[in-house]
Amino acid sequence: MSDVPSASDLQGVVYDAVVPARTPWSRVIKAGEVLRLIDLEGQQAVDFLCYSAADPGDRYNSMNTVKVQGNTYVSKGTVLYSDSGLPLFTVIEDSLGQHDTVYGCCSNPNNRLRYGVETTESCYSNFLCELATHGMDRSAIVSNVNFFMQVPIMPDGGAGVAADVSPPGSHVDLRAETDVLAVLSNCPQMHNPCNAYNPTPIRVIVRAA
Ligand SMILES: [Zn+2]
């Protein structure tokens, strides 16, 4: 497996875990800490939401993020802004180069509408379960970042999930600009190529400020 750091390669590791395929994860990342997400086996979409830990009603806002950057992709240097314009995370390293933030998460209704299938697992369901552990509900689910997922936008506005491969070991580093609750779904989708029809584990590492 290429370019996957061992904990000993990184300074100040305070948390290091593997998130199994198809499951959610969350943690409060303190101001200055750096959250690394690693696509261990490649081509694994990670649906990602974040909230001010001090005021969880102030959450990631894709409109602010896209408009301030003037770009529909998340990449190195992108600041993830909240509803109030608070910087939540800054992308300080990015081995892949671009990530989607317009296509949102998969859900059981969306799978029915798009693919005509009745599913029981989805990123939306994962978000609901994980948010509940923080006393939050579906009102907290907004249009999210899709790390390691590519949705190219065509000149005519057409867009769709591309089968472009995120290589094994692809990673992003997100520096918390305030205390941030990060919530993710290691996407279970089996009806488009975002996970190469084979959901796999990811790794999350948190380093001290
Ligand atoms: Zn999904």
Secondary-structure topology with pairs:
Layout: E1 13-19, E2 24-29, E3 34-39, E4 46-52, H1 62-69, E5 73-74, E6 79-81, E7 87-94, E8 99-100, H2 108-115, H3 123-132, E9 145-147, E10 170-176, E11 180-186, E12 202-207
Antiparallel strand pairs: 1-12, 2-11, 3-10, 3-12, 4-9, 4-11, 5-8, 6-7, 7-10
This protein binds zinc ion.
InterPro entries: DUF1989 (IPR018959)
Pfam family, one: DUF1989
Domain DUF1989: 18-181
Account of the protein in words:
It is a single chain. With 209 residues, the protein is of the alpha+beta class. The chain has one domain. It has helices at residues 62-69, 108-115, 123-132; strands at residues 13-19, 24-29, 34-39, 46-52, 73-74, 79-81, 87-94, 99-100, 145-147, 170-176, 180-186, 202-207. InterPro entries: DUF1989. It comes from Terrihabitans rhizophilus. This is DUF1989 domain-containing protein. Residues 18-181 form the DUF1989 domain.
Largest beta-sheet characterization: 6 strands, antiparallel
Number of helices: 3
What is the number of beta strands? 12
Poorly predicted runs of 5 or more residues: none
State the shape: globular
The strand line-up of the biggest sheet is 1-12-3-10-7-6
- Hetero compounds: zinc ion
- Portion in helices: 10-25%
Rg estimate, integer Å: 16 Å
Q: How do the helices and strands follow one another from N- to C-terminus?
A: EEEEHEEEEHHEEEE
Taken together, the total number of domains comes to 1
Distance between the termini: 28 Å
Protein name: DUF1989 domain-containing protein
Domain DUF1989: 18-181
